[in-house]
Amino acid sequence: MSEHISQKQLENYLWGAATLLRGVIDASDYKSIIFPLMFFKRISDEYDSEYEQALSESKGDAEYASYPEQHEFQIPKGCHWKDVRQITKEVGRAIKNAMESIEKANPEKLMGIFGDSNWTNKERLTDSILVNLIEHFSTLNLSIKNVPQDEFGTGYEFLIKKFADDSGHTAAEFYTNRTVVRLMALILDPKPGESIYDPTCGSGGMLLNSALLVKERGQEYRSLKLYGQEINLITSGIARMNMFIHGFSDFQIFRGDTLKHPAFTENDKLMKFDMVIANPPYSVKKWNQELWVHDPWGRNIYGTPPQGCADYAFFQHIICSMKEKTGRCAILWPHGILFRDAEREMRAKLIEDDYVDAVIGMGPNLFYNSPMDSCIVVCSKNKPKKRKGKILFIRAYDQIITEKTQSFLSEEHIKNIHNWYEDFKEIPGRTKIADIDEIRKNKFVINVALYVLPELAEENQKETKPLKDVVSEWKSSSKDVSKSFEQLKIVLKEVIK
């Protein structure tokens, strides 16, 4: 019998599955077990729901209800969740066989989606552990009728974040702070019918949040075309599941090394997209620098990055992936890309081409499990007239809420930063519009701290405040100034070289 499942009930149910693995496998590996089982259960339950609906429509014609056209995904005989649930020995092998058969039955949609987890390793996953997991998942029906796509998608995102919280250093590989992602999507302003690309897509959150923003506005989001590439097999599968669970079908997400083997090409050239949104892995040391010197895709337009840091390889790939008239991007970076001397010549050429639109200095702890300050660099291949030859700098270090070791942006912070970007005006202590001549004089260092210092007092602030509030604000301002000067010292060392 169908029964709608509340959001809280769904979250407790999903996290309950993960708790069964505590002490059995490392927390960073939860996702390789839980997500495939969760998706397997979802498509099995939805297959049953589709069968019942077709049976009702055909007045009991079982053959009609079994036709492939009645089902989004095909489930071969003996490979349904209910079939696996009957198995009590060699459970891992039964799961593995069922998942492989389902992938083969749906090659265009599902090939490789369940990843390559070693289900048959009994030292890691005993029969009793897998039986407990299957029985836990069997307690609820996950059909769309019971758990609509939006709600299931929210639950899926909840689980992704929980795994990020639990998985330590590996979290950043598949999860980017969703409050920052929303800000980036708002700035890029995705429109119906556009193509959106993430070259290092992780679990697909940047693509999804961009598409969901269009849906939230009541616009035709189904006309969007979503493209992503992810080097990790398990994570790329999670991203594809994420798309299906949220109700998106017009997407392409491939596994592979973006720098070595870009997945999206046409006529021996890189595909071009309307919008690129990304949080590339920072300071990658193991990459093929030698291949980049003679890059077959012509992406080395500004030069070859140092072996110890591939940031500007990703940056150039993104610039080369943007359409000439509509192409724009927002990239979440550590601050180093703004001032490192080793990349100055490449940065200078990027700025001289007038592609850099805005640099937003963000606070610390917005990267998972890293205290580094972050920044968002916004680029455009076709800036509006008033923005040509200029870069907008936004000091947003204070637009942050910190809880324990993690930080996030409130809705007010997101609104503030988005408005400052859209307004394109100078606000003392907050924004600065610098032309390329000024940036050239600063030897192409584009750290926000070099252009925008915090205001210590507001001249138009007339009202009297309690002494304790004034002292509190003074302490806060002092910390802000101290932090800005520390950043400025680092920048000036680069400028005076």
What can you tell me about this protein's structure?
The chain is α/β, with parallel strands linked by helices. It folds into two domains: 7-147, N6 adenine-specific DNA methyltransferase, N-terminal domain (Ferritin); 169-495, Vaccinia Virus protein VP39 (Rossmann fold, 3-Layer(aba) Sandwich). It has helices spanning 7-19, 30-57, 62-65, 81-85, 91-105, 107-110, 127-137, 149-166, 178-188, 205-216, 233-245, 289-293, 311-320, 344-352, 411-423, 436-441, 448-451, 467-495; strands at residues 195-198, 225-230, 251-255, 265-266, 269-270, 275-278, 328-334, 356-364, 373-380, 390-395, 401-403, 406-408, 431-435. The strands form three sheets. The protein has a nine-stranded mixed beta sheet, with helices on both faces. A two-stranded antiparallel sheet has the order 4-5. It has a two-stranded antiparallel sheet with strand order 11-12. Helix 1 runs parallel beside helix 8 (149-166), helix 2 (30-57) packs parallel to helix 11 (233-245) and helix 9 runs parallel beside helix 15 (411-423). The N and C termini lie far apart (73 Å). Mean pLDDT is 90; it is low at 457-465.
